[in-house]
């Protein structure tokens, strides 16, 4: 079995569910993107698949965006050449079909000064979005209705004592209340998958919770 970093059992759990096909579609897409950056995670997923991850078949998530997901997984298997894959080069090849054209052309919504997002797909709470945060800007404090996976595509951010940089995947769940902040410097671009809407918990929470369904 390929080894991951020590104390990485939560991520290991997510990768195992990914290999078993039991993650919600949005989360599976975020993991698919992460695999492009992390050879150890790829090896771990390959090991899970060869061990027969279908043991978890009965837990299979609703196929909300199943075509999108199947398309992505097929692309991963083809081991595409980043230079030859059409689409925005800031996205891993397996995810470029999610964005027609360039990232700048997407209908970004400005949420506060220095923070924009755009939803790529959303079905019954299973949502995938891109988030763009200028250096030094904080994401509004929030907790989670379900699972949240954040894949860093450009730049970096801090959450407590932890730093997440390009290719890193952060996992969050209803036990975490946090306020990530983009690192000073280039704008931080992330792909964020949530299985349920987040709930804002900071000073402006009542306003944010009534206006935004994240
Ligand atoms: Zn969060």
Model description:
By secondary structure, the chain is an alpha+beta fold. Helices cover 26% and strands 26% of the residues. It has five helices and eleven strands, in the order H-H-H-H-E-E-E-E-E-E-E-E-E-E-E-H. The chain has a six-stranded antiparallel beta sheet, covered by helices on one side. Strand 6 and strand 7 (162-165) form a beta hairpin. The protein starts with 8 loop residues before the first helix and ends with a helix. The structure holds zinc ion (ZN).
Question: Main attributes?
Answer:
single chain, 214 residues, alpha+beta, six-stranded antiparallel β-sheet, three-stranded antiparallel β-sheet, binds zinc ion
Radius of gyration: 17 Å
- Give the helices and strands as they follow along the chain: HHHHEEEEEEEEEEEH
Helix fraction? 25-40%
Distance between the termini: 37 Å
Q: Total helix count?
A: 5
- Arithmetic mean of pLDDT: 84
What is the total tally of β strands?
Answer: 11
User: Largest sheet at a glance?
Assistant: 6 strands, antiparallel
In the predicted model, the low-confidence regions spanning at least 5 consecutive residues are none
């Amino acid at each position: 079995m390929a080894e991951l970093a020590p104390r990485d059992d939560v991520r290991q759990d997510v990768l195992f569910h990914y290999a078993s096909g039991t993650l919600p579609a949005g989360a599976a897409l975020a993991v698919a993107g992460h695999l492009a950056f992390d050879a150890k995670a790829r090896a771990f997923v390959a090991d899970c698949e060869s061990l027969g991850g279908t043991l978890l078949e009965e837990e299979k998530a609703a196929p909300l965006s199943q075509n999108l997901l199947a398309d992505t997984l097929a692309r991963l298997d083809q081991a595409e050449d980043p230079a030859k894959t059409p689409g925005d080069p800031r996205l891993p090849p397996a995810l470029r079909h999610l964005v027609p054209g360039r990232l700048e052309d997407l209908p970004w919504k400005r949420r506060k000064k220095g923070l924009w997002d755009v939803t790529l797909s959303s079905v019954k709470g299973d949502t995938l979005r891109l988030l763009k945060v200028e250096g030094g800007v904080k994401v509004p404090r929030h907790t989670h209705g379900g699972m949240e996976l954040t894949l860093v595509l450009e730049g970096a951010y801090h959450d407590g004592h932890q730093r997440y940089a390009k290719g890193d995947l952060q996992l969050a769940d209803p036990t975490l209340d946090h306020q990530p902040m983009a690192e000073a410097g280039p704008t931080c671009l992330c792909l964020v998958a949530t299985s349920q809407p987040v709930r804002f918990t900071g000073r402006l929470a009542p306003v944010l919770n009534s206006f935004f369904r994240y």
